[in-house]
Specification:
about 300 residues, HAD_sf, 2 domains, alpha/beta, Rossmann fold, magnesium, HAD-SF_hydro_IIB, nine-stranded mixed beta sheet, magnesium ion binding, about 35% helix, globular, 13 strands
Length: about 300
Amino acid sequence: MMIKGHDMTTKPLIFTDIDGTLLDHFDYSFSDAIEVIEALNERHIPIIANTSKTFAEMEKLQQTFGFNSPFISENGAVIYIPIGYFSQQPQDTLTQGYYWVKEFCQPRQYWLELLHQHAQAFNDNFIGFSSLSVEELCEVTDLSPDNATLALVRHYGEPLLWQGDDVSKQAFIELMASVGAHTLQGGRFLHVGGDTDKGKAMQWLAAVYAEQYGTLVSTIALGDSGNDNAMLEAADIAIQIKSPVHPFPLLTTKNPSIKSSEYGPKGWAECIKQTLLSSSETSSVLAELAVSQPSFGGA
């Protein structure tokens, strides 16, 4: 899909990972991206968080970022849409509090019971979120106590801190698959849950935007780790953010892809400027890369 900042016939949608992408991996700052966020808000370009973070974490972060858009939580397991954000409530959504909610898998308790029933042989290889105290999570992640408390309140999956070797990890992943669980390696944790991912959730929400606004939409996705690949590979433009702790994951996509030269939020700002806030010269380069057919069309 052609991405042009001045092309008002196609609505760009930005789907972004949070940890290590919009937030710095070490100090969780996003100060290097504030100017670009403000520029996108002025242009009414939605910024949609697509993250492993919980509802409680994201509700707080949405206010911190100044986002009023929907957000995707727990690695594509659920989408929260502020009531009234669209003129009509999207189909197949529930109303919970101040949100229309689209669920994609079973609740967390289902996966905890599955781990208890089938993963006893691997108990010495991992520590589950459900067994961590706030203090222990702070030590692992450098989160503040308040933010760690929010991170522990999960609804749709169980992150594991893997402490075993790679051979045991692969055996565990195969076992989980055999009993119907999906595993996904994030920046720090191995996530166990349903067959959901950030890409499927992004595509569902992008289709809702197209239907609600009656226009073509283009998806620009930004992420830094392997659990972002499904989102990046499904996007019209994939932007990989350089990580200070691991190499760029291998990406398989026929659509345009970009790698940032800077880390975290600085790389986020760098690449958004190139794709949406750039000179006409840069836009023309992207246009040459872009595919000709949109992924989602309006009614």
